[in-house]
Amino acid sequence: MKQLRKIRDFLSGDASADRVVPPSGQTAHLTLFASAVMAFLAVFALALSLAAGRLADKWSDELARASTVRISAPEDQMQAQTQAALRVLETTEGIASARALTAQEQQALLAPWFGQNVPVEALPVPQLIEVIETDAGYDGAGLRLRLSAEAPGAVLDDHTRWRRPLVQAAERLRLLAVMSILLISGAMAAIITLAANAALASNAQVIGVLRLVGAEDRYIANAFVRRFTLRSLAGALVGMGVGAIAILFLPSAATEIGFLTGLGFAGAEWFLPLVVPLVGAAVAYLATRRASLRVLGALT
Amino acid sequence: MSDRTGARVIELENLAYSYGGGELLSDVSLKLAPGSFHFLTGPSGAGKTTFLKLCYGALVPTSGFVRIFDRDVRDMSRDDVAQIRRRIGVVHQDCQFLDHLPLYENVALPLTVAGFDVAGEAENLRDLLAWCGLEPRANALPPQLSGGERQRAALARAVILSPDVVLADEPTGNVDWEMSQRLLTLLVELNRMGKTVLIATHDLGLIRAAKQQVQARVLRISNRRLQLAGADL
């Protein structure tokens, strides 16, 4: 509550105190522009982070529960081995369901590689069985042993081989996005520190006059800090708004399949960009305050 | 040189100050009693401005002591010095204003930084500007003011918080004789109100004129030391 009051007092400010620092065009524009650009980039990084997170969860979740049994056997044994494998699967603990894919479904799977009109039945295509696990999952090693005994041509593919690198890639992408947000914040702090230093240096005479009349360092610093914080907040609001609109107009994930079309916010995630200007203002506050107190400490 | 009276607002004891490898002031001792009036003279570069800065805590002595209102400046934080400056009005030769603010806001600056409600002090501010003859120029920006107006505005700003001490560095350096007499009259009036006044000047005419109106002591910085000036003044 006390902190909230402090923030409110800081934002409402003191009109006459605000006027002691002269308006500085160049640093004002630099701060506004830098904040807007950084907020814009941060919104994209945030969207990327969320999209990567969703993708990782989706891959991790969906693929973790699905497995495939592939049966490669001579044509005359195919049916028997398929049935044997299905029986094994039906009696295996941890498997919710198992079914052999129809010829049409297998054709659809091959269509991207061989075209629509491939006579699947004329090709030595293995029979695929889709296996859905329960939440508890099954014992892969045990199942492989039982399958090899009952259906020698059956090979269990629990997707681990290619699921792991995909999930890792998505996790890395999410980490990269989070790092981008941190780097953007750091870059914003650096730019605003430079702008604050420039403003303080160009206002050495103002600082001298304020000290002469009894201003404490905190008062002088606040005059600069408040100005830079509010400018950064304004710039970041603009950048956030433009960024959010740009993401809003990205193609929808529903229309096409693919990661890039999934970049964006979903549901309550649309409130998350609102955090960007607040973080921007907080970064500006801390950067300017640190720079101001350091410069004031160095001035005699 | 020292004053043996007990009470003092500013006290310098065996003070020395060096800058850039050279000693500017050496073995300086002085007590400024409440309500006293002092002039500080000496040739250009003798260290008058440095002496004043030591008196209001803008500089710290190389050795010796400066006590302002019984507090050693070495023991003061920057905020302490800021608080002390609200009790010491300083008038610089170059006045030092915020050029983007009108005169009345510049004069009210000590009120602003001290957290007073400037709007609530409007009447006092008007009276002060009238006392200095600046009321018609209240809305002018500092660059639009003449030298005399700037000096009077600096004096008004120095006294707006009713300080105990007024330190003035060459307050008549940029004004004509008539204006310097007017400024002197204001400083003498302040002294009659009980303020301690210390004026650094090389204007001997101003000192002579003051001695006809007020009991003033004249100090001289010579060869880095502070001396009581001769009776010819």
From TrEMBL, chain A:
Known InterPro entries for this protein?
FtsX
GO CC annotations, alphabetized: cell division site; membrane
Q: Which GO terms describe its biological process?
A: cell division
Protein origin, superkingdom: Bacteria
* Transmembrane region(s): 30-52, 173-192, 228-250, 270-287
Coiled-coil parts of chain: none
Keywords of this entry? Cell cycle, Cell division, Membrane, Transmembrane, Transmembrane helix
The name of this protein is: Cell division transport system permease protein
TrEMBL record, chain B:
Tell me which UniProt keywords the record has, alphabetically. Answer: ATP-binding, Cell cycle, Cell division, Nucleotide-binding
List the GO biological process terms.
cell division
Q: Which GO terms describe its molecular function?
A: ATP binding; ATP hydrolysis activity; transmembrane transporter activity
One GO CC term of this entry?
Answer: plasma membrane
Q: What is the protein's given name?
A: Cell division transport system ATP-binding protein
Domain (ABC transporter) ranges? 10-229
The cross-references to Pfam families, in alphabetical order and at most eight, read:
ABC_tran
The organism is: Pseudooceanicola nitratireducens
